[in-house]
Amino acid sequence: MQQLSPQDAQFLYMESDDNLTHVTSINIFDPSTVPGGKVVRFKEIIAHVEERLIANPMLRRKLVRVPLELDYPYWADDEFFDLEYHIRHGRLPQPGDWRQFCIHMARYHSRPLDMNKPLWELYVLEGLDDIEGLPPGCYAVAIKVHHAAVDGASLVRFLLSLVDIDNQGTPVAPMDYAEVEESPRPSLRDMARRAAANNLRSPVRIADAILRNSPGLVETARDTLTRRSSKQTVPMTRFNGKVSPHKMFDACDVPLEDLKKIRMLAPGSTINDVVLAVCAGALREYLSHHGELPDDPLVAWVPINARPGGAGDQSDPGNNITAMTTSLHTDEPDPVKRLGEIHASTQRSKEAKSGVSARLLTDITQHVPAATQVLASRLILQLSRSVRVCNLFISNVPGPQFPVYMNGAQQVGSYGLAPLADGMGLFIGTPSYNGRMSFNVISSRELMPDIRFFAECIVRSLQALLVAAVEQQRKAGGATGRAAAKTSKAKAPGKAGAKAKAKSKAKTKSKTTAKSTSKAQTKSAATRKAASKGKAARKRQVKPKGAG
């Protein structure tokens, strides 16, 4: 029997009629890469998914709830599983532009899953013929999965099991064709026995979690006492209102290389920091435009993958996440300074009290009895608008950085929609794929009716940071060039310097030689003169015979 973890079950208990807790991943494919120029048929997509079911046994399983919520639900094989019920088909009306696509996807995301079936469905949408940057004939494959079954990292792994490394059908993830272990429906007696045991063990496990985190708790308490005056406040914004069932969606995508350039503006910063800074700049412009920018900076809730092996850990298909809250410093007008402050804030959140409290909360919720968690979830839903934890969600989920294919068609875009909740009515998701990252904005019609304007604010925020990064690089390059030229002048290296030095040595040597020669000549003349005088003297002393 496979039972939902407490964290998985949270997403069931937090769901309401107005705010559903499923995620929708949208991948756009270009059929022009299909070998032989063939057309991808809907039935071929169904056959492809059926072939890959072996790698995703969860797609065949549905929820079985325990009576009176005495324990967490179970996953059980659906004995009447019908693949074609879960895969549907549609088409955009002409002209098939971006606005129509966003409206269509927002409406699709707003519709609930059938909770009596396996909690997923796949929707093929054709007619994307008039979208800038996409060739005509593209189609989208939208996959809606309940958050109780996947988190961001496990959803990426699930999607990778459906795609190929080339247009010939070679799977990205090796297919394991070993017999999948069955997950039969548990009997009432089995569920009652396990519920009793789990509820008895819960207090012991909670105490153990607290003891394991006790060193961090001591540091957290000390830090809280010394820094109480600087406690982070969450301002009231339009995003902290009630969220309606009428969802809105828009997106823009940018080269991942641009984010890497911007990262150099703040040494040590990460791509996540840059994403937060871009969102912060967009929020500042958007709220200023509406005359609603608060004096206090906005606060973001940022999910963190808690798997021991990171995003590549495939040990559990469900949820394994923690989170941190961080200031977006929207009170800082300078985008470069804002990036530096966000980097400092995320470092503090990861290394200090926010990281400890998030880990402890994750550990404790793993052992809270189901009935208690149901009541707690309902209480949170009621208090969410009066007790502000954050202003928005921001989630960065890395995807494959290489081209992938499905039925021979190359994937050319990646987008996504996520759940909202009362009091937290804005979600910005940033999945990346093949060297590009998309900024996906999800809100409700009442909170953000001009969602396209906000998407444009994101583009302008990124451009402002990119211009600053390019300017910094240009100045650094100019300074390096001037320093090199100055060094060259000072050292005077090379052939010219060596030649001048050799010439100087030769000149000195020539002078020395001339001086020596002159001395030698003078000495020789003096010797000759002395010899001549001696000869004359001898002549005067010895006279010839017969002289007078």
Secondary structure layout plus pairing:
Elements: E1 2-3, H1 6-13, E2 22-30, H2 42-52, E3 61-64, E4 74-77, H3 83-86, E5 87-91, H4 98-110, E6 120-128, E7 138-146, H5 152-160, H6 188-212, H7 214-226, E8 247-255, H8 256-263, H9 271-289, E9 299-305, E10 321-327, H10 335-351, H11 353-365, H12 370-383, E11 392-395, E12 405-406, E13 409-417, E14 427-429, E15 432-433, E16 436-444, H13 451-491, H14 495-541
Parallel strand pairs: 5-6, 9-11, 11-14
Antiparallel strand pairs: 1-4, 2-7, 2-13, 3-4, 6-7, 8-16, 9-10, 12-13, 14-16, 15-16
Helix pairs in contact: 1-12, 6-11, 7-11, 8-9, 8-13, 9-10, 9-13, 10-11
SSE run: EHEHEEHEHEEHHHEHHEEHHHEEEEEEHH
> Helical region count?
14
Query: How large, in whole angstroms, is the Cα Rg?
Result: 38 Å
DSSP E strands, number: 16
Q: What gap, in angstroms, lies between the N and C termini?
A: 159 Å
As a percent range, the share of strand residues is 15-25%
Mean of the pLDDT scores?
79
- Main beta sheet, described? 7 strands, mixed
Which blocks of ≥5 consecutive residues have pLDDT under 50? 204-218, 220-230, 310-315, 352-364, 487-506, 508-520, 522-548
Tell me the structural class.
alpha+beta
What's the overall geometry?
A: globular
The percent of residues in helical segments reads 40-55%
